[in-house]
Structure formats: C-alpha cells, structure tokens
Design brief:
By secondary structure, the chain is of the alpha/beta class. It contains ten helices and eleven strands. It is elongated. It starts with a strand and ends in a 7-residue tail after the last helix.
Length: 288
C-alpha cells in the first residue's frame, strides 16, 4: 500500500468521499491511495505538503469555496495537479477553475470509476508535460542550472524583497579562468563542456538550497545569496576558489552587495561585473 501514489480529496461531504473511494477500488490501471481532507484549512495544509500525486478539489467547502483554495495554493507555489469537482448548477465555475490552475474538472453527479480514472491519468500526464516545458524554459541544457532569464527574474524578486525588508543580498559573478585553453588543449568542446558541468556542481555544493546558481553565459556563472552581506559572500567565494583547485582550473569571482544606490537587479549585477573585471585584471584566481 505504501508504494501507491497518493491522491488528496478535499471535500466536506462524507458521502462523496466514500463514493470517490469506491471508484478508486474499481480502477483497472494504476491504483492510488486516497486521502481525505474535509475542510478548507486542512485541505490547504495537506496540499502544501507536496506529498500527493494529484488533488480532487470540491467547489463547496462549507462557507468557503474551492476556487479560493485553488488560487491560494497556486499563489503559495503548490505544483500538485488539481482536478476540480463541480455540480450541474455550477454555471461557469468549471471555466474559472481551469483559469485558476486546475488541469481538469468533473461534474460530481456524473462521476464514475472510468471517468475518474481517465481524468486522473490525463491530469498527471499533462502535469508531467508542463513540468518538463517549465524545466526547458528555465534551465540551462548543459549544466541543469537556472538559465540567465530565469536567474534574472529570481534576482529581481530578491531585490524587491530586500527593498521592503531590512536584510542583505549579495551577488557573485564567476568566470572560469583561461577557459579557451581547456577547449584548445584538452580535447575540444567536449572537455570544455565537462569542465563547465564540473564547475556547476562545485558551485551548487558551496551554497544553500535557498540560494540560486545560474549559468550566466559561456564560461560565466552567477550566484544570488539572500540574507548574506558582502563579507559573508566573500567567504563563500573563497570556498569556491579552494574547491576549484582539484579541477585543474581556477576561478575569478566578483562580489557585490545590494544597496539602494545600486537600484534594481541590473545595477547589482553591474557592480558584481565590475568587481569580476577587477579580479581578472589583478591576475585571476581571486575574489574582488
């Protein structure tokens, strides 16, 4: 039983929960384990846990409704695929649910095992396809790191948070020293690609899960360090220099901390880029 994928039903109707559970027992393909949350608060808490392969969400939840729960879950970053349950008198609720982020909907009075199994299979497949599209749109194909566009989007978000709350934010811009020589002397582009992947893994190993590591372009990388001032960021950069030595290459790293004078994300990156240039001009294999 523990190996079955879990599905969450959020519905305040005990009879409906029993009917759905009975339909699950009749599935002819993959079997699922059904869990039931019978109110808005418990349902949202369970949904935010990320423990479920999918969620069946009823529109009527006492004095609150599933549309509000769905919108709040999306706002909180919940990725679980949701199938919305509507009634025959729901009007345009089904369309609103799809606009809010549901992947499919079912009319409660027409639910049967075959239709429910089909809807679950469809939602899970669509969710996997959308997740892969998001990955392709936000990740660098070679290293798997965030790409420049997504990295800049996240940095802009961090800068806005730093504007609102008194907390530090620092940026590292990192260049692989003499990278052209790796391509020219160590086996061409394959060797260069292997070096970039190795550097990517090295950088990820030196930062926290909440930090962002970005393939900035070519042989340049960037790291966003939230709640980190320039002094602490320099220590992170020094660890990166030390960790790079076994790779047979060195790094040049520019460090900058956000200040109101630096304005937006672009101003912060420009300050880090200036520091990176200083590190390279001073002889590389160093932090500036």
């Amino acid at each position: 039983m523990d190996s079955l994928r879990k599905v969450l039903l959020i519905d305040d109707d005990r009879l409906q929960a029993r009917l759905v559970d009975a339909s699950f027992e009749k599935f002819v393909g993959e079997k699922f384990q059904l869990y039931w949350a019978q109110n808005y608060e418990d349902g949202l808490l369970e949904l935010r846990s990320g423990a479920y392969a999918a969620c069946l969400l009823d529109y009527q939840l006492g004095d609150r409704d599933g549309l509000a729960l769905l919108r709040e879950a999306v706002r909180l970053g919940v990725q679980t695929p949701v199938i919305f349950l509507t009634s025959e008198t729901s009007g345009h609720v089904d369309g609103q649910a799809m606009e809010a982020g549901a992947l499919d909907y079912l009319v409660k009075g027409e639910i049967n095992a075959r239709g429910l199994e089909r809807s679950l299979r469809y939602a899970l497949k669509l969710h996997a396809t959308l997740a892969e599209l998001r990955r392709l749109a936000t990740r660098d194909m070679l290293t798997g790191l965030l790409n420049r566009r997504e990295g800049l989007r996240l940095l802009e978000r961090e800068v806005e948070r730093t504007r609102r709350y008194p907390r530090p934010l620092s940026v590292l811009l990192i260049d692989v020293d003499h990278f052209k020589e790796v391509n020219d002397k160590q086996g061409g582009h394959a060797a260069g690609d292997a070096m970039l992947v190795a550097v990517a893994r090295l950088l990820e190993a030196q930062v926290r899960a909440e930090d962002a590591v970005v393939r900035w372009g070519g042989d340049e990388f960037a790291v966003w360090l939230a709640d980190t001032d320039a002094t602490a960021a320099r220590l992170v950069a020094e660890r990166m220099l030390a960790a790079a030595r076994p790779l047979g290459s060195t790094l040049s790293i520019g460090v900058a901390q956000w200040t109101p004078e630096r304005g937006d994300a672009g101003g912060l990156v420009a300050a880090a880029d200036k520091a990176l240039y200083e590190a390279k001009w001073a002889g590389r294999n160093r932090v500036a």
